[in-house]
Target: PPM-type phosphatase domain-containing protein
Amino acid sequence: MSSVKQLVTQLFECNQITIPENRRPLFEKFLQDEQNVSIINTLIQNQNELMAKWKLQDRIAEIMQQPLRIANGTVGKPYQADFDLEKFNWQDITAFEWDGLERVGLTYDATTKQITGVPTQSGDIKLLFKFKLAEQPEDAAFNHKPVTIIINPDPRSLWKNLESDKNDPYWKEDNLTVFAPLNDRHILVSSKRGRSHANMGSFREDDFAFQDLANGWSIVVVADGAGSARLSRKGSAMACQGIVTYFQEPSSVESMAEFDELLQQHISSTGDDTQKKLNRLVYNNLGKAAFQVHKQLEAFAAAEGATLKDLSSTLIFTLFKKYEAGYAFLSFGVGDCPIAVLNKDVTEVTLMNWLDVGEFGGGTRFITMPEVFQNEKFATRFGFKLLEDFSYLMLMSDGIYDPKFVVEANLPNIQKWQEFLADLNGQNEEGIVVELKPENPEIENQFSRWMDFWSPGNHDDRTLAIVF
Model:
């Protein structure tokens, strides 16, 4: 009764009606009147309904104004974002749905409480979070809360792919992938123009060559033309072809025959005298090949009115041949491109060259530099190894080395090479598998697709040769 009296008293006061002391008995009787009691009950009911409506509207407004941030996504990449009502203290929401998710390739899973999918378009995507509260009738309309989800564009889509000028006298294909027999193995090699070059319509600066020689040797060459040198595409092409041509010359064939004799002596010898002779022969023969390429580039530059620096290119090459005792590997390298041989069960890696980094402060060296041949370290640029067997011989430009190995210190680590092979076998962001089997009819297509892998900040030309 006291609450009823308080309600009516407040109502009277709002209407500037005051109950004096001598009217208190009359007021008490007024409150007990049957008709008045009915009116008062109606007032209380209406008041409660009014308060409930206000609380409902206030709660809806609170949810509408509460920030709702959904994780950003990227076009073409699997997306997953948690959406749990308890996280936002929205346990009083009894029904909800999303409007607009399907439009961009996303869905909401009530079981996992996650928004998932693969976004199909970029931008500030406008969505509607439609919800009902427990206090609302079942047939009430949903409340609409606008929500924005940011979908970033696929970074790859921002790069142009402009064809290079086919009328250029030194033009070569922007992308080239080849699979072929080589010696008693096979070679899979791909050279791809970098995104930085494709974006401007400039040329692929990398190059490669390989060849079975008549004396049982096989050769693989990779060169990386300097992006800052205006004719480096020609320099790398000339370097690769020049090395192959050199080892096809009669004088080189004769010299390699001498290697065969020395190797047989070395296998049966217990001393290191034949080792020194072998090292000297490798130095002389491969050194002449590298120097001849240097002179060819020098002559070409003079004939074309260019500078030798215009043709700047790194150069690595490996010759290998099978003997009864195993495989002989001879190598040369100038620049920052590694050569590696993995043993049969991929438990050891043999590096066939060192990279022009470290003491040079990250600056590489090129076959066009005369000081390369005059430096006291020139003799250390050659390698000779006799291995019982091998699984892979790999030569790569820095367009592969930089994103996949990052630093030179990772190259002697067999685990890094195992990870690299796993990457080729499908453990990569795109899930692209390169099945390194001679009978694989899709091997070139698979390898070409794999070579397009995305690596932020690494958009240089890529060349990778794999002998297996």
User: Anything to note?
Assistant: The first helix runs from residue 2 to 14. The mean pLDDT is 94.
